[in-house]
Design brief:
Two copies of one chain form a homodimer.
Chain A: H1 7-19, H2 22-29, H3 33-47, E1 52-54, E2 59-61, H4 63-91, E3 95-101, H5 109-120, E4 124-130, H6 133-141, E5 147-150, E6 159-167, E7 169-174, E8 194-198, H7 205-216, E9 222-227, H8 230-238, E10 243-247, E11 258-262, E12 270-277, H9 283-289
Parallel strand pairs in A: 3-4, 3-5, 8-9, 8-10
Antiparallel strand pairs in A: 1-2, 5-12, 6-12, 7-10, 7-11
Helix pairs in contact in A: 1-2, 1-4, 2-3
The structure holds a DNA duplex (30 and 30 nucleotides).
Chain lengths: 292, 292
DNA sequence: AATAATTAATAACTATGGGTTATCAATTGG
DNA sequence: CCAATTGATAACCCATAGTTATTAATTATT
C-alpha cells in the first residue's frame, strides 16, 4: 500500500515479459526468483491490472501486459536518450551557441569559426542574428546571446572582449564615379561630397574613427545619411546620395553597383572584437571559446 | 557507484527544478532536506552531468538541467497515461481517447462520432474537454490530447489535419431585434451595430473570415467585445451589447434568448477540422481514426 | 563590527522494504 | 508413483533511503 512505481519495476517486468519464465528472468536480472515474483505482484497492484497469466506451468502476457510491454520499451528508449543527451549538453559537446554579429563580420571571420568548431564538435549548433553593437551588448548581458561580434572599445563589467581581426578602411563610391584606383590618393579628394555613415550606436568609437580619418586629412565630412545596415549604405551610395567609408572586407559578399577603393596612408584600423559574458552558463560556449 | 536511476530521482529533481530551493522542495515531497540533497547529488553522478548550480544562497538550473526538466515532464506524462491505459485495458475497455473541441463542434459532429465508434468498439472510452484552438494544438503536440476539433488552416509539423464539416454562418441577434427571417436580406443591414466576435487565437483564420463577410458587403464591423466561449457571446448578444456572426450549427443545444438568421449570399464557410499527432502511440486512436 | 537568520552540505544514525534462503503446492513426464 | 520443475509464501537480513544533529558559508540586522 502506498508504494510507488519505479523504473526497477519496469526493468523486471520487461525481463519476465521477454523470458515468459520467472526463474530465467530472475537469473538474467541476477536476483532471486521469489524477489522477482514479489516485485511483479506489487507492480500489478500499483497499476491495478493483471499483467501475466500464470497457470503453474507456463507464463503468458495478458492483453494489458502486451500493451504495457510495447510502451515500456519505448519509455526506456526515451529515458536512455534523454540521459545521454543531458550528459552531452553538460559537457558542452552538444547544444546551441547563439551568435550576434555586425554585417561586416559575416564575410570572413564567422564562416571560418563555424567550420573549425564543426570539425571538432559537429553536434554544436549555431543560431546567427545580425545585430547592432548596442543590441549585442544588451543581449549578452541578459543571457539572450552567447557570443557577439562587435566594433567596440569598452564593454560593461562582467563582459569579456577580445580583438580578433583588424581591417583597413575603404572608400565606397558609385560605380560611375570619376575617382578610380589610380587617381585615388587621399580621402581629401572627396571632401566636398556628402557622406553616408554607420549610425553611432552604444559606443561611438566606430563613428569617431571614420570622422577622424577625414579630419586627419584636413576636412570635416558632411554627413547626409546614417544607417545600421551595410546593405542600406551601399544602396544609398549606388543611388548617388553620398559616399561612404567602411571596413574593406565588406566588399565581398554583396552584389551591388558600387566600387571599393582602399584608403592609403591612414593610421586608423577597423578592429573587430568578440564579446561574451564571463559567467555565461552555456557549456557549449566553453568549447567554442577555444577557437576564438 | 552502481546505482540505478529511478523515477524517484525524477520526481525529486522536478520538485527542486520548480522550487529552486532544496528545503522548500523537500517540504513539498514530505522528506528531509539532507535526504533530498543526497538523492539529487546521486542523480547527478549517475547521469554524469551537473544539473543545478548551488551557490550557498540560491539554486538555479544548468543548461543541461533545463533540458532534462522539459524531458522529464514529458516522460511522466507518458508514463501516467500508459499506466492508466493498461488498467483500462485490463478492465476490458480498449482504452481511452482524449478529445478536445471548440464549443461549436459539440452540437453535431462529436455526438455522431461517439455513437459510431461506440457501435463498433463499445469498450473504447472518451474524455471530452472544451478547449481553444491554440490549447488543443499545444496539447496534441505534447501528447496530452489524442484528437482535437478545431477551426484552423495550418498546423505544426507532425500534426495531421482533416476537414470534416463545412457550415454556413448565421447572424445572432437579441430575440426582440427588429430584423427577422423575412426582412433579413444582407449583413449590411446591421453595419451600424456593434459586434461581438470570437477571440483570434493561434490562427486568425476564423476571425478574419467573419471580418471578410462584412467587408464583402461594404462595411467594417465595429468590434466591441471578444470571447472564446460561444455561451458568453450569446449572453452578450442577449444583453444587447452587440450582434454576432457564428457557425449556424451553434443554434442547437443552447437555451438562450437570441435568434439565429442564416446569412444569405455569402461565399464564406465555417470549416471544422480534426487534428491528431502523427506518431501518437495510443492504440485506441487507430480505431477511432477510421471514423473521421 | 558583531550577531542573527538564512542557505545547502556532511556525518552518523535508523528503519523501510528489496532481496535473500528455505519451503510449499501444483503440475507434468517418465 | 516418484522425480523434476514451476511460481507463490514465509521468515529472515541487510542495503540504502530517509532521519536527526551539526557545520560552513552567506546575507541581513543591529
Amino acid at each position: 500500500m502506498g508504494y510507488q512505481l519505479e523504473l526497477r519495476h519496469f526493468t523486471y517486468f520487461l525481463a519476465v515479459a521477454e523470458e515468459l519464465h520467472f526463474r530465467k528472468a530472475a537469473e538474467r536480472l541476477f536476483i532471486s526468483q521469489p524477489g522477482l515474483s514479489r516485485q511483479i505482484k506489487q507492480m500489478e497492484e500499483i497499476i491495478g491490472a493483471e499483467l501475466f497469466i500464470r497457470n503453474k506451468r507456463n507464463v503468458s502476457l495478458t492483453v494489458a501486459g502486451e500493451y504495457l510491454k510495447k510502451e515500456i520499451a519505448y519509455i526506456f528508449n526515451h529515458i536512455d536518450f534523454t540521459v545521454k543527451q543531458t550528459a552531452l549538453i553538460d559537457k558542452g559537446s552538444e547544444g546551441e551557441v547563439r551568435i550576434g554579429f555586425l554585417g561586416s563580420a559575416i564575410q570572413t571571420v564567422i564562416p571560418e569559426l563555424l567550420v573549425k568548431v564543426d570539425e571538432e564538435y559537429p553536434k554544436i549548433q549555431f543560431s546567427l542574428e545580425e545585430m547592432s553593437n548596442y543590441d549585442q551588448v544588451k543581449a549578452i548581458v541578459s543571457d539572450e546571446l552567447d557570443i557577439g561580434f562587435v566594433r567596440l572599445a569598452r564593454v560593461p563589467d562582467g563582459v569579456c572582449i577580445k580583438e580578433i581581426q583588424t581591417d583597413t578602411f575603404s572608400l565606397v563610391l558609385p560605380k560611375d564615379h570619376l575617382l578610380n584606383k589610380e587617381s585615388f590618393k587621399s580621402v581629401a579628394q572627396v571632401s566636398s561630397e556628402h557622406f553616408v555613415l554607420f549610425s553611432s550606436d552604444y559606443s561611438s568609437i566606430y563613428y569617431n574613427k571614420i570622422m577622424s580619418i577625414c579630419e586627419d586629412k584636413g576636412f570635416t565630412p558632411i554627413v547626409s545619411h546614417k544607417s545600421v545596415h551595410a546593405q542600406t549604405i551601399f544602396k544609398l551610395v549606388e543611388s548617388g546620395l553620398g559616399v561612404a567609408i567602411v571596413p574593406t572586407s565588406l566588399q565581398y559578399g554583396f552584389d551591388l553597383n558600387v566600387k571599393f577603393l582602399e584608403i592609403p596612408n591612414i593610421t586608423q584600423k577597423a578592429e573587430l572584437s568578440v564579446i561574451w559574458k564571463e559567467d555565461n552558463r552555456n557549456p557549449a560556449l566553453e568549447k567554442v571559446k577555444k577557437f576564438l
